[in-house]
Amino acid sequence: MSSQSLKDKIALVTGASRGIGASIAKAYGREGAHVLLLGRTVGALQDVHDHIVADGGKATIMPVDLKDIDALSTIGPTIFEKFGGLDIFVANAGILGTLRPLAQTPMKEWHEVMTVNVSANVQMIRSLDPLLRASDAGRVIFLSSGVVPNPRSYWGAYSASKAAIESVAHTYACECEPTNVRVNIVDPGRVRTDMRAQAYPGEDGSKLPHPDDITDVFVDLALPTQTQNGARIDA
Ligand SMILES: NC(=O)c1ccc[n+]([C@@H]2O[C@H](COP(=O)([O-])OP(=O)(O)OC[C@H]3O[C@@H](n4cnc5c(N)ncnc54)[C@H](OP(=O)(O)O)[C@@H]3O)[C@@H](O)[C@H]2O)c1
Questions:
Q1: ∠ CA(29), CA(31), CA(32), 5° rounding?
Q2: Mind listing the pLDDT tens digit for each residue in 159-209?
């Protein structure tokens, strides 16, 4: 039984078609938010939409490829036109790239990881910032990774992208300090998703937490009563 703590909020979750993003979207739907589901895979977005609606919630799918950086500039105005504003933005979508030595990383792949994990989120902030500031309680959550404080071989592009997004998040948190917008970072830890299986193909995923097990922190950081700003939180 939810407390409807996000009732009447508009929440945009990227990477909502599966994994952690799908679970955050479902949790927000249960808490009464109208959830905008962004990702590329229409069928999977529709499944998450149908789950939220069957649970009594509201959702709308937004099929978008985050690599299409220029097109992202229209997202803010489109959301304003269709929904009248935005209260919560979860920058969850991400890609791992191929784990390999830095010296053997093709620049095309480096750019792809940086585009999806960093540049797309900066462009989203550029587009969504007026809506978040207009909200009486704008909330932004960026997803990072334990590889930032604990560097390791072969994770170069992903690790650099997550370090960069943490820096973006801290900068944006400082800039939002005098406003109603609160900006925080979550490190979800090891979670049973496609990305985790790609990084650790031999691992027994059944022993890892399911994405549904880690959604409380995302609800907490989205609450209108939340005061933390610029924090980095382990889920
Ligand atoms: N799982 C873990 O253990 C773990 C640990 C630390 C951090 N994280 C972080 O948590 C976040 C979610 O990871 P996850 O494990 O849930 O990953 P996942 O299962 O691989 O899901 C990634 C999501 O991102 C979306 N996405 C990827 N490229 C996209 C693009 N170009 N345009 C739009 N959407 C795109 C995918 O949707 P489509 O394919 O439909 O586009 C999918 O919904 C990521 O930022 C990841 O770095 C995960």
A1: 70
A2: 999 999 999 999 999 999 999 999 999 999 999 999 999 999 999 999 999
Q: Which ligand 1 atom is the nearest neighbour of the CA of 147?
A: 6
pTM score of the predicted model: 0.98
DSSP 139-175: EEEEE--TTTTS--TT-HHHHHHHHHHHHHHHHHHHH
Output the CA 92–ligand 1 centroid distance in Å: 6
User: What pLDDT score does 184 carry?
Assistant: 98
Q: Note the residue count of the chain.
A: 235
Query: Which listed residue (28, 154, 158, 172) is catalytic?
Result: 158
Residue-wise pLDDT tens digits, 36-58? 999 999 999 999 999 999 999 99
67 CA closest ligand 1 atom index: 31
Alpha carbon nearest to ligand 1 atom 11, residue: 92
Q: Which residues are within 8 A (CB) of 66 and not within 5 positions of it... i.e. 6 or more apart?
A: 14, 38, 72, 93, 115, 116, 120
Q: What sections of the chain are H helices per DSSP?
A: 19-30, 42-54, 69-72, 75-83, 107-114, 120-134, 156-176, 194-199, 216-222
Vertex 22 angle, CA 170 and 91, to 5°: 20
Active site residue 158: yes
Helix (H) or strand (E) run with residue 61 in it: strand 58-63
- Tokens representing 26 are 């479902």
User: Which domains are present in the chain?
Assistant: 10-234 (3.40.50.720)
Q: Pocket around ligand 1: residues whose beta carbon is below 6 Å from it? A: 14-15, 17-21, 39-41, 44, 65-67, 92-95, 116, 143, 145, 188, 190-191, 193-196
